[in-house]
Structure formats: C-alpha cells, structure tokens
Amino acid sequence: MFTPQKLWPLTPRSATGQKNGSSLPGPGSVTNQISPTNGEVLAKGKAVTFLEGDGVMNQESLTERASKLENEFEFSNFLCNSGCAFCGSFELFEYQYNMGLLLIEKKEWAVKYEELRQALAETTDTLKREQTAHSSALSEVEKREENLKKSTGRSTYKLHRKLEKALREMRSEYAEIKFNADSKLAEANALVTSVEEKSLEVEAKFHAADAKLAEVSRKSSEIERKLHELEAQENALRRERSFFTTEREAHDTALSKQREDLREWERKLQEAEERLADSRRLLNQREERANENDRILKEKQNDLEELRKKIEISNSTLKNKEDDISSRLASIALKEKASSYLTSIHSIILVLEAGDVKKRLEEKEKQLLELEEKLNTREKVEIQKLVDEHKSILTEKQKEFELEMEQRRKEHDDQLKNKLVEVEKKEAEIAHLEEKLKKREQAIEKKSEKVREKELDFDSKLKDFRGREKVKDELENLKAESETLQLRLNEERQQLKVTEEERIELARLQSELKQEIDKYRFQSEELMKEADDLKEAKEKFEKEWEELDDKRAEIKKEQEEVLEQQRSLEKLRHSEEERLRNEKLEIQQYVQRELEALKLAKDSFAASMEHEKSILAEKSQSEKSQLTHDFEMRKQELEAEMRRKQEEIETHLHEKEKTFEQEREMELNNINYLREVARREMEEMKLERLRIEKEKLEISQNKKHVEAQQHEMKKDIEELVGLSQKLKDQREQFIKERERFIAFAEKQKNCEACGETIREFVLSDLHSLTELENLEAPPLPRVAENYLKEAVEGTVERVWC
User: Which residues form a coiled coil (predicted)?
Assistant: First the structure.
C-alpha cells in the first residue's frame, strides 16, 4: 500500500476543474448503478483499506498544503504590492524551491500513474480472458446438457429436471453475473476512458504547468537580470554621481582659478589702461604745455614784433622829427637871415621886448627840457622794463623748458624701463598662463569625455559668460570714457582758442599805446612849433639831436640785441618745435600702437634713445601683440570648444535622460505586467482553492458513499460466498450422480439393444463430462478484486483531478 499525495497545479484550472467535475460521475449515479444484489461487491472489496488508511491523511495534507500556498501567495501579493526588489527575489527563490518540490512529486506521480495504468491494462486483459473462458464453459455445459438429454431419456428425466433447474439457476446466475460483468466492463471502459481523458488533461495540465514554470523561471530570471541591471545602473549612477560631484568640484575649482586669473588679468589690463590713461593724460598735459609754450612764444614774438614796430615807429617819428627840425632850422636860418635885415629895423623893438621874450623862452626851454628829460627817462625806464621783463621771462622759460625736458626725459626713461619690466612680467605671466591653459586644456579634454554637466554647471558657465560680457561692457565703458576724455581734450583745446580774446585785448592795449604815442607826437609837434619861434632853441635842439643820436645808437644796439635774442629765441623755438613735433609724432605713434595692441604696447619715444632700445621695444611690442592675438584666438577657440562641448554634453544628457525614462517606463510596464500576472494568478489560485474545497467536499461525500458501498460489498461478498458453497455442493452431487450414471451405463453395456448407443455416449459425452469434472468454478473473488482495483484507480484519478 502507498499513500497518494495531492499534486497541486501551478496554474489556475477553473475551466478544467469544471470539465473534470462534469465528467466525473456523482454519488447519485454511482448508487443508481450499484445494487447489493448485482455482484458488484467483489469489485469493491479492496478499496476500503486504501480509503480507510489514507483518507484522513490526504485530507490533512491537503488542508496543510492549501494553508501553506495561501500564506505563500498572500506573501507574494504583499511583496508585489510593496515593490521590494530584495523581498521579491527571496519570494521568487521560495517559489522556485516549491516548484522544484512539486516537479519531484510530479515525477513520482507520473511513475505511479504508469504503474497503475499497466496494472489496469493487466486487469482488463485477465477480465477478458476470464469472460472468454466463462463463455466457453457455458457452451460446453449446454452441449453436454443436450447430449445428456439425448442419452438419458426417460430414466434420467428426473435427474434431467433437476439438472435443468440447476442449469437454469446457473444460467440465471451466469446471466446475472454476465450482465453485472458487462455492466462492470462498461463501467470499467468508461472509467478507463475517463481515466485516459483525465490523464490527458493531467498531462495537458502538466505541460501547462511546465510552460508556466518555464515562464515563471524565465520571468524570474528576467526579473533577477533586470534587478541586477537596475542595481548595476544604480551603482553606475552612484559612481557617476560621485565622479560627477568630484569632477564638478574640480571643475568649479578650475573655474574659480580661471576666474581669479581672468580677474587678475582684467585687473592688470585695467592697471595698464590706467597707465595708458595716465600716459595719455601726461601727453595731453605735455601737449597743453607745449601749446601754452607755443602760445607764449607766439605772444612773445607778437610782443617783440610790436616792440620792433614801436621802435620802428619811434625811429620813423625821430626821423620825422629830425626832418622837421632840419626844416625848421633851415626856416629859422632863413628867418634869421631875413631877421638880420629886420633886426636893424626892429632892434629897438626887440631890445624892448627882448627881456620879456628871453624870459618866456627861458621858461619854455626849461619846460621843454623838463619834458624831454621826463620823456627820455620814461622811455628809458619803459624800454629797460620791457627788456628786463623779456629777459627774465626768457630766462625763466628757458629754465622751465630745460627742467621740463629733463623731467620728460627722466619720465620717458622711467616709463620705458617700467614698461620693459612690465612687458617682461607680462610675457612671463603670459607664458605661465599659456602653460596653465595647456594643462587646463589637457584636463578639460580628459574631463570632457567623462563629465556630464547639469544645470548648475550651465548656470555657472552662463554666469561666467555674463561676467565676461560685463567685463566687455566695462572695457567698452572704458573706451567710451577714453573717448570722452579725448572730447574733453578737444574742448580744452578749443578753450585754448579763447586766448585769442586776450590777444584782442593786447591789440586794444597796443592801440591805446598808439594813441598815447600819437598824443606824444602831437605834444612834440606842439613843442616843435613853439621851438620854431625860438631862435635860441637851435643849440638845445642840436644837443637834443646829439642825445637823440646817442639814443638812436643805443636803441640800435638794443634793437640788434633784441634781434639777436629774437633770432636765438626763434632758433630755440624752431628746435623745440621740431623736437616737440618729433616727440608728438612719436607719442601719437606710441598711442596708436598701444591702442592697436590692446593698450598693452610700449612707448615709442625712442627717437632720442638708442637704436637698441628701439629694436627691443619693437620686438617686445611685436611679441606682445602676437601673444595677445594668440591669446585672444585661443580664448575664442576655447570658448567655441566649450560651447560645442556644452552642447554635446547637453545633447548626451538629454539622450541619456530619454533612454533612462524609456527604460524606466519599460521596467515599470514590466513590473505592472508582472503584478497584473501575479494578481491574476492569485485570483486563479483563489478560484483553485475554492475548487479544491469543493473537491474536498466531493471527496468527503465520495468517502461516505464508498463506506456505504463497502458495507454493501461486504454483504454481497457474504452472499457470493454462500452461492459458491452451494455451487460446490451441487457440483459434488452432480459428480456423484454422474458416477452413478456411469456405473449404470457400465452395467448396460452388456445389453445388446442399447449397448452400442451407450458406448457411443460414453465415448463422446462422458469424455466431455470428465473435462467438465476437471473444470473448476470461475475465480469470482479475483474478478471482484480486479473490479475493486479498477474502482480504487477511478477514485484515485478523481482525487488526482
């Protein structure tokens, strides 16, 4: 005896369960087909022990397995709802372990099913053999009965009647047995067909279970693979995030360093621009001073020209006065000659009036002398003042000019030295920056392959670009301020033109001086007119003439000195003008070079410097311009490359985000699909559990029905045992009567009339009777055992299904 175990299906079988339920015969049908008198008791004899020994244990194991599966599926449903990947993998491991156990049990049940199917085939073969033997025995009995009817005649009529009764009873019994056997065969065939159908269903369910197991294993492997992929992605994302944070920090530090370097560079540019502005301011101041010097020189030239004009005017006036005096002297001489003639006539009148005239003339001469002395002293004082003032102004201006030139030279030398030092420093800084830029370019090239910058980096870069734009705006503002300064310089130059008004005032003063000179001339003419009337004024006029000659000589000397000073001043002015022009041209060229080379070039005041310094300055300027140009080009290239890499990183990040979103959506869809599948399987398991409960109820009902059938089978077995005992007794009586009939036939062999017929009967029919004697009753208990085995197999199949 073995204890059959329940094989739980892996897939819901609501439809199959209904089919199986419909195909199985109910308890009512079984009771309708089976009766206590139809000989079916033998087929149920050995099912009692199978059901009595294993019914309770199967029910307990079924309940335990149902509770376990309920707990497992509730746990799996909880895990599916919670979405815990680790718990899901643990539940899948337990599920796979249970599935492995179920597969082992399935293999065992398959082996047991094959054994039972082979036993059923053997029992059906034995049943068919027994039926053929039984039918052949019945035909032989009928033949022997006919032969006995022919042979016995009247003497054996009573025996024949008894035998007929016995045969009828036996036929009725055999007919009942045959009917029961046929019905049982039909039932067995139906059971075989149902068992085969159920076996096919079970095989289909096994295949479905295998497919479901394969699907579950595939899904579990996919889930595990996806879990591993998700874990790998999470680890990769974490590593990338950590790497990204470190790279972002490094990039931030590099950007901060770059910003500091750019700020230093901007500060240095501002300092250089301030220096350029200072140099421009100094140049403008120097230009202003040169313009002032030019203006002062022009004013002095104008003053000198005015003085020369005044001296020429005074010389012309003196010449006119000399001509007037000479004409007057001639007229006086003529008058004297005429008066000599008249003196004799007017001697008396003159003598009388001589005293008064002399007094008047003396007074007038005194007044004239006083006026001449005053005029002479005044002229001398004014001329000396003017000459002293001009000399002092020229000496002061020469000293100031020499000091300014020395200061300019020193300043130019200092500026050139400072600029050379600055250029060297800037060249070193530019070389250091180039090295830094090369290193940063290498670092950026290495980092650009790995860095996946996000919105913060983009914002920082945008801020940096905005800062650079601000710096550019500040540079433009500085340019605008320089332009405003140039406009101011132009305004100041225009203000210098306002000095023309002062020149107009000087012209007005010169006109006033001319008016005073005219007044002086008018007074001198009046005095000459008064001197014309005086005779004695000749000597005084001669003296005045001599004095005037002396004054003229002095004035000529002074004029020559003034001309020499003017020539020297003009020479100095021309030399200073040429030098200032040269310096101005050099300064303008220097400023232009500085503006063209980002306001960081050198001063070009090297016309008066040595040729080597100019060569060094030009070389440094060209190198600096080249470096600045290369730096700007490299800066633009780096900015373009940074923009390109930024765009590439943005596109790569967008693509990564899209792929990640798609993968996440696919994973979510797969998880939702698996949740839906698990939910459906849970629902199917619930339905399966309800169906199992229904089957449990059916099994309990079948158990009760089997117990009732077992009781009936016991009764039928007892009746069959009694019937078999009766058949044995009748067979013994029949053998005894046969022996008596054979003895009677032996006795009648010697009879002449009936001896031949009796011999023929003995030779033919009694031989068959001996064979019938050797025959035994059919082994009805074995048939019952076979039927019971079939019934047990049917119940087992029902339990399986």
Answer: 106-133, 213-324, 354-384, 409-593, 628-737
Tokens of 480: 């605008």
Q: Can you give the three-state secondary structure of 344-400, one letter per residue?
A: HHHHHHHHHHHHHHHHHHHHHHHHHHHHHHHHHHHHHHHHHHHHHHHHHHHHHHHHH
Q: What is the mean pLDDT of residues 637-650?
A: 76
In the numeric block, which tokens belong to residue 799? 């339990």
Least confident of 13-27, 454-468, 706-720: 13-27
pLDDT in tens, 489-546: 666 556 555 555 666 666 676 677 677 667 666 766 766 676 566 667 567 656 766 7
In the chain, how many H helices and how many E strands?
11, 0
pTM of the full structure:
0.20
Contact 799, 58 (CB under 8 A): yes
- HEC string of 733-792 equals HHHHHHHHHHHHHHHHCCCCCCHHHHHHHHHHHHHHHHHHHHCCCCCHHHHHHHHHHHHH
Evaluate whether 443 touches 254 at the Cβ level (below 8 Å): yes
Alpha-carbon dihedral 179, 180, 182, 184, rounded to 10 degrees: 160
Two tokens, residue 795: 């119940």
Tokens found for residue 572: 């100095």
The kind and range of the H/E element at 123 are helix 85-152
User: What six digits make up the tokens of 663?
Assistant: 């993968």
Closest alpha carbon to 708 in 39, 56, 21, 41: 41
Distance of alpha carbon 527 from alpha carbon 325, whole angstroms: 11
C-alpha 727/C-alpha 738 separation (Å) is 16
Answer for the pair 793, 195: CB distance below 8 angstroms, yes or no. Answer: yes
- 308 in Cβ contact with 390 (< 8 Å): no
Quote the tokens at residue 359.
């007094």
- d(Cα 720, Cα 707) in Å, to the nearest integer? 19
Rounded Cα distance between 45 and 716, Å, is: 10
Indicate the residue type of 489: L
Give the position of tokens 């940074």.
642
User: How buried is residue 572: exposed, middle or buried, by Cβ count under 10 Å (0-12/13-18/19+)?
Assistant: middle
Q: What is the mean pLDDT of the chain?
A: 66
Q: Which of 791, 783, 746 is nearest to 180 (CA)?
A: 783
Tokens standing for 276? 């350029």
What is the three-class DSSP state of 450? coil
* Alpha-carbon gap, residue 353 to 474, rounded angstroms: 100
Half-sphere exposure of 273 (CA within 13 A, CB side): 17
Residue 45 near residue 717 (C-beta atoms within 8 A): yes
Distance CA 80, CA 330 (A): 152
Task: Determine the angle formed by the axes of helices 780-800 and 157-448, rounding to 10 degrees.
Answer: 30
The 10s digit of each residue's pLDDT in 74-97 is: 555 554 454 444 445 556 667 677
Res. 780 pLDDT band, cuts 50 70 90: very low
What six digits make up the tokens of 70? Answer: 């309920």
- CA 387 → CA 300, 316, 317, 517, 566, distances in Å? 12, 21, 21, 19, 12
Question: Which of 158-172, 404-418, 665-679 holds the top average pLDDT?
Answer: 665-679
Q: Among residues 187, 172, 178, which one has the least CA distance to residue 135?
A: 178
| Residue 166 · residue 730 · CB < 8 Å | yes
